[in-house]
């Protein structure tokens, strides 16, 4: 076999390997978690029953969902939490609904005394989703709801 044919074959094989590796890299590129169908609501305490703040959302990622952190805050506070701050927030309870999707619900019980101290008006729920592969999605205003007394 001539050296030119051998060299051409090696160059062709290397080019083919590079294209295949690029295709594999594209096929395995991780995606960010997505949050869909999110909603939040506040129910004031009544009688002997505690009230609650509930945020529910469907979170999807091709690797699965590890965790969802949630923080509720009044719009008037101008808080504007960051992704870093949300890492230490409380976790929602999540259950798988498919291989890639998880329904997460965050519930905070509110006593009459706590409800009386809550700022009335518009509130936001911020969310930080973490996938099993470590990818994250931060949504500073994932939901809006009203607190009334």
Please write out the topology.
Layout: H1 3-27, E1 34-43, E2 51-60, E3 65-74, H2 83-86, E4 90-91, E5 93-96, E6 101-110, H3 112-117, E7 121-131, E8 136-147
Antiparallel strand pairs: 1-2, 2-6, 3-4, 3-7, 5-6, 7-8
Structure description:
The structure is a single chain. This protein is globular. The chain has 149 residues and is α+β, with helices and mostly antiparallel strands. It has helices at 3-27, 83-86, 112-117; strands at 34-43, 51-60, 65-74, 90-91, 93-96, 101-110, 121-131, 136-147. 23% of the residues lie in helices and 46% in strands. The longest helix is centred in the first third of the chain and has 25 residues, at 3-27. It contains three helices and eight strands, in the order αβββαβββαββ.
Could you provide a short overview of the structure?
This protein is of the alpha+beta class and 149 residues long.
Record keyword descriptors for this entry.
149 residues; alpha+beta; four-stranded antiparallel sheet; 3 helices; 8 strands; 23% helix; disordered N terminus
């Amino acid at each position: 076999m001539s050296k030119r044919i051998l060299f051409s074959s090696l160059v062709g094989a290397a080019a083919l390997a590079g294209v295949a590796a690029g295709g594999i890299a594209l096929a395995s590129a991780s995606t960010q978690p997505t949050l869909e169908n999110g909603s939040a609501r506040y129910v004031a305490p009544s009688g002997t029953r505690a009230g609650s703040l509930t945020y529910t959302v469907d979170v999807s990622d091709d690797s699965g969902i590890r965790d969802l952190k949630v923080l509720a805050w009044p719009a008037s506070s101008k808080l504007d939490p960051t992704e870093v701050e949300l890492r230490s927030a409380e976790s929602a309870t999540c259950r798988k609904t498919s291989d890639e999707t998880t329904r997460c619900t965050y519930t905070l019980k509110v006593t009459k005394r706590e409800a009386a101290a809550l700022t009335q008006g518009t509130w936001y729920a911020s969310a930080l989703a973490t996938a099993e592969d470590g990818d994250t999605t931060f949504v500073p205003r994932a939901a809006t709801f009203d607190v009334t007394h």
